[in-house]
Design goal:
The protein is of the alpha+beta class. 54% of the residues lie in helices and 14% in strands. It is globular and about 65 Å long.
Length: 321
Amino acid sequence: MSEFSEIAVTDEATTEATTEATTVFMDHRELLFGLVYNMLGSVADTEDVLQETWLSWTARARRAPLGTIANPRAYLVRIAVNHALQRRATITRRRETYVGPWLPEPLVDQAADGDPEDPASRAESVSLAMLVVLESLTPLERAVFVLNEVFGYAHTEIADIIDRTPAAVRQLAHRARAHVHARRPLYEAHPRVRREATERFVRAAIGGDIASLMEILAPDVTVWTDSGGNRKPAGLRPVHGRDKAVRLINSFATRRRGPQDLELRYRRVNGDDAAVLFEGDSPYAVMVMDLTPEGDQVSGVYIVTNPEKLTHVHKDEEEDQ
């Protein structure tokens, strides 16, 4: 066989290995997206980590047959989780210069009711409010919490993924669970109650109905407005208390060109009912409400207006007809 023939055979084998590896990767991409997104809270960073995972995976496939890997799913999860842990350092540095409150990038269903069979819907295992709580965990605590509480991995499996002992994983899980449960109620309002409260709040907020806002907002409500310094008006820090919250929300509703310029669409965001405001065809804001355990008042409002976090949000063409 000539040198050129040997090169051709080698290239063909490499291409076949890459194709096979890509097929396996795509079979597990939805799971990997959910894991990494819930660890990072950023769609863009998640996509970067998935690209790094694919590169590592295909490089492994070119070195040895995939048939030698007993559990490709577990292997891919290990690669993705460890790339995500490395990415946290980049996100932390970026946060140090971020203008105003930082909120996770919302995952928005394009359909009004949200299709439970849509991959994005199935990845939305953690609410936006819960993602805010998870931001206060250490990277390892968050990884363990997501793997264990959200995706059901056993402590022994997690130990293999993050290269820690099962005892260390149990300790991380205990700390994370205690922290999260202290800040999040174990009881969640019924979805129908959530939808009704969300619509009541949005009508009052967009309409500037101060009396209705005072009624539906809990006395200790907190409002986060994430503009990244790219929108005004926006609070530079979270606003606590009903009176201050009403003033901030009212200033949002009466922005320079008036609320009549904004078009309202109800969507599911990270699995919860929420509102998306459009300025023409461009997304202007995503508003997510967190309710009291009884579901009768709003205890938290998360408003994302940073255009960089809304690039994947689009109008549903069917609703425009």
